[in-house]
Amino acid sequence: MEAAGPLCLAAAALLAWGFLRVWDSRERTKSQEQAGVLGDGSRTLLVIAHPDDEAMFFAPTVLGLARLGHRLSLLCFSAGNFYNQGEIRKKELLQSCDVLGIPPSSIMIIDNRDFPDDPSVQWDTERVASILLQHIEMNSINLVVTFDEGGVSGHSNHIALYAAMRTLHSEGRLPKGCSVLTLQSVNVLRKYISLLDLPFTLLRRQDVLFVLTSKEVAQAKRAMSCHHSQLLWFRRLYVLFSRYMRINSLYFL
């Protein structure tokens, strides 16, 4: 009986490994299919709330879109100054993006008291939407990627970005041909079982799915490691166990 637990874990890990091998064998075909859905060579904007969101939550999407030939840019709505570390975190974001392949010229960080890094503050939806629309139009963006209504972690700043994009989309204010992809939030159990979540993910519908190869997982971890100021013990565990360091499932608005 004592051996049952380790055996079950080993069986689950083997099952996930098997699914991943199947995924790897289909990767080129799937990438071609998703390129048709997403548009090869699209100008894509990743919209995040804080430095480290790009690595902690969106690394599979960033690396997956790069595979498809997308030209990626990033808009970060705060400097992450909750603990007065804003200047440090700006530099960490640039370093992380360099690892992920986003050049400094394609990164904009908003450091404005209207958008504090604070889960207790509700960002003004129309103000966020206005800045988003201006950035989209100025840069001829045709795909926006951001959080869904759950914000992955439930952080109000994440959810504010979704609310603003939802407003622009529902009111028909986005430029013609501009699509919006949102990152699916999952329950706590699925969030922290890493690749063991892959079978459950494959059984569910999503518009776009990115799964990192082992080489890309190492790249994602290197990007996250650039955020030295944020690597407290629980975030180190997050890097080890979170599905978002390996898997992203996304839906179009």
Automatic annotation (TrEMBL):
<keyword id="KW-0378">Hydrolase</keyword>
<dbReference type="Pfam" id="PF02585">
    <property type="entry name" value="PIG-L"/>
</dbReference>
<dbReference type="InterPro" id="IPR024078">
    <property type="entry name" value="LmbE-like_dom_sf"/>
</dbReference>
<comment type="pathway">
    <text>Glycolipid biosynthesis; glycosylphosphatidylinositol-anchor biosynthesis.</text>
</comment>
<dbReference type="GO" id="GO:0006506">
    <property type="term" value="P:GPI anchor biosynthetic process"/>
</dbReference>
<keyword id="KW-0812">Transmembrane</keyword>
<keyword id="KW-0256">Endoplasmic reticulum</keyword>
<keyword id="KW-0337">GPI-anchor biosynthesis</keyword>
<keyword id="KW-1133">Transmembrane helix</keyword>
<keyword id="KW-0472">Membrane</keyword>
<dbReference type="GO" id="GO:0005789">
    <property type="term" value="C:endoplasmic reticulum membrane"/>
</dbReference>
<protein>
    <recommendedName>
        <fullName>N-acetylglucosaminyl-phosphatidylinositol de-N-acetylase</fullName>
        <ecNumber>3.5.1.89</ecNumber>
    </recommendedName>
</protein>
<dbReference type="InterPro" id="IPR003737">
    <property type="entry name" value="GlcNAc_PI_deacetylase-related"/>
</dbReference>
<comment type="similarity">
    <text>Belongs to the PIGL family.</text>
</comment>
<comment type="function">
    <text>Catalyzes the second step of glycosylphosphatidylinositol (GPI) biosynthesis, which is the de-N-acetylation of N-acetylglucosaminyl-phosphatidylinositol.</text>
</comment>
<dbReference type="GO" id="GO:0000225">
    <property type="term" value="F:N-acetylglucosaminylphosphatidylinositol deacetylase activity"/>
</dbReference>
